[in-house]
Amino acid sequence: METTAAEFFLALINIVFLDLILAGDNAIVIGLAARNLQKETQKKAIIYGTAGAVILRIIATILVVWLLNIPWLLLVGGVLLIGIAYKLMTDDNNDHGSIKAGKNLGAAIRTIIVADAAMGLDNVIAVAGAAKHNMILVTLGLLISVPIVVWGSTLFIKLINRFPWIIYVGSAVLAYTASSMITEEKHFMGYFEAHQIIKYLFIAAIIVGVLTAGHLKKRSAGRRQSSSQS
Fold first, then answer.
1. CA distance 226 to 110
2. Chain segment 201-211, per-residue pLDDT in tens
3. Are 45 and 105 in contact (CB under 8 A)?
4. Cβ(21)–Cβ(88) below 8 Å
């Protein structure tokens, strides 16, 4: 089935949004890795480190897109992505103390690339799922979003802190992508295509379930924190 221009650009926007939502930690790591360098060297470390991270992320995502053609892996990827959507809402403990600042340009670049690769699995699975086997979408989405993350990270993190609902939107988009991956698993696809109402009810149930579970966990954690402080 051919993808229309509107579907292509909608999927591209979805990929960029998902990568931005998931990449806050990666952006912080980049800043930490380059923090001890002089300003001019910092810029080089960020540019070269980002270029290396983009290339590695594209290769990893294309590999995952290819792997998702293997039977049952769409189901596995979808389930993993549901967990990532839930974690996005509930994980407030971001410890970056183990990230060492690079003492020179090469060390900082290596730290950026390795840290991005280690922390980027959720991004890779989300982008691979949203791309629906389209390698052009994978490449374009990452080429657009990763540089935005690096240079616009501070602004984006401030926006998330100011407008917490952005996290809810991000989790909903991830849950939608995850449930769509599950319905497109070839062992289930025939059933869901023949029962469209059940398909959309399933997708809606996953989205509502993730948002509800995440909200309740977040509220419970907030209560415990308030109790410990009082």
1. 40
2. 999 999 999 99
3. yes
4. yes
pTM: 0.69
- Distance in angstroms (rounded) separating the CA atoms of residues 84 and 103: 33
**Domain residue spans of the chain:** 5-229
Following DSSP, what letter does each residue of 29-53 receive, concatenated?
Answer: HHHHHTTTS-HHHHHHHHHHHHHHH
Characterise 132 by phi-psi region: left (phi > 0), alpha (psi -120 to 50), beta (else): left
Q: 93: alpha, beta or left, given left = phi > 0 and alpha = psi -120 to 50?
A: beta
| Residue indicated by tokens 């996005």 | 88
Asked whether the beta carbons of 74 and 185 are under 8 A apart, the reply is yes
The set of residues, in sequence order, having a beta carbon less than 8 Å from that of 132 and lying 6+ positions away, is: 3, 11, 184
pLDDT digits (tens, 9 = 90+) for 59-110: 888 888 787 778 888 888 889 889 888 887 886 545 554 445 556 778 777 7
Straight-line distance from the first to the last Cα atom of the chain, in angstroms, rounded to the nearest whole number: 59
- Residue 84 and residue 174 in contact, taking contact as beta carbons nearer than 8 Å: yes
